[in-house]
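so my prof wants the structure for this chain in the tokens format not the other one, which i didnt know existed until like an hour ago. anyway here's the sequence
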Amino acid sequence: MTADPGSAGPRDGTASQDAGLASLAGEGSILSRTARGAGWVIGWRFCTRFIGLFSTLILVRLLTPADFGIVALAFSFAHGFGQLCEVGVENAIIRDPNPDRALYDTGFTINLIRGFGVALVLSIGAFPIAALFHNPDLAPVLLAVAAISALGAVENIGVVDFRRFIAFDREFVLKIIPRIVQTVIGIILSFILRSYWALIIALLTNQALTTIMTYQLHPFRPQLSLAAWRRMAGYSAWVWVNNLVSLLNSNGTNFIIGKMLGVGAVGIFGLGNEIAGLPNTELVGPLCRSAFSGFAQAQADGDNGANLLLRLLALMTIIALPAGLGLSLTAYPIVQLGFGKNWISAVPLLQIIGVANAFSIFSMISGVVFSVRAWMKALFKLGAAVTLIRIGLIIVLLPVYGLTGAAIAIALTDIVNQIVLIVVTVHRLDVSLTSLLDRVWRSVTAAALMTALLIVLHLGWRDDPGTDHWQAIHLSAAVLIGAISYTASLFGLWLIAGQPEGGERDLLDATRAMLRRVETRRLRA
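here's what i got, hopefully its the right format
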């Protein structure tokens, strides 16, 4: 039983009723709603990238690098402290089969404690940190960032329902309006102030508006309570532990590279690793955010999510696999055209890590299943083992092969992580490996044919120095030929196989549905 849409919780005040806003749930299957949700998240990422690029192109002409640097440094401290205190409150609510008012209120209170705790640490440390960096201007900026953390702490926990009921269109509105307002205010104040305070005030406005909108867009009104902390404690504790492992994984790698090869090598490694991970951050990541809600909904309905897993993997492999391999194959022209010849040493990193990342859809979706099913201890053991092995391999390979050795270590451990996660996932969900391979073999084969063709045509994994004009032609030809060959191979294999149920059909159905919605809106307009 769910709460009345206009109420702040259960009608009779009991703790057993679901306090969520069930009217947010849209029509269609869990798969179609998950796919739509991923589309909204991807749309948000592309919009915020575009808005960010637009504002940056203007702000860099009005502010100095030091202005950007002081703000970035302050937020790096806030982000670090925030990560250390992250306990997965929203995910705990989403995966709970019957989250009552007590759970929502407990989640709100924990977020309040976390946000004000980070604000307190930043406030106390503001002047000592500024003294450490010999920059007195950093102290007031840290105090302002502390205020942003405090504002975020009082957001309405009710908006977690946008994720819980896969209503990511509402979340899109919640995020995009403050982002646009932030950009406008930041540009206007930069013209007036010509100071980093333009950025700080804009960010404060964003958070204040976001907090206000969380109460406008959802009727739930949270109260201070820790009544359900025991229900949340076990899951949240493991989320925190796994976050620590993740921080050790990323920061440990950077620390070792910086210690052994210098800070310049850290910059090159960071660039190569970031580009190689673009398919994950821009495509697979948004899907996983939506998929968490989908798997949680399936679990609440008594479904173990096996069919959803197979269909999501089949659908996303079609998109993510060629994107990841394509980045690896065209690493040289991408780096030269996008970042200049000074960054060419990042090419082998992108080539090696890109291949491993192309298959990370399997580990990322499996990780979502682990989180939803609360297999957190197993996730911790695997994450800790992979991190220790990775760090050990980097220490061994880095002195011999340089950054290429680090890339090899990361690629090898990523592949091991992917294999273990997907094998354990399909085993626990009672899915045969044959069923999995039946869903993805056409995508893998088409991607292999695309790779072979680009190599034969000397367009893939070819490190040819040349002018920017030549590299642009090289990249354009590789993208065009790769896209055509992959699409033709994929749907050719699908037709030969008799057009079975799978990612191809789901992709076509999703495309048709999107076109119908666009046409319907056009006619209404």
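also thought this was worth mentioning. Residues 175 and 349 are 34 Å apart (CA to CA).
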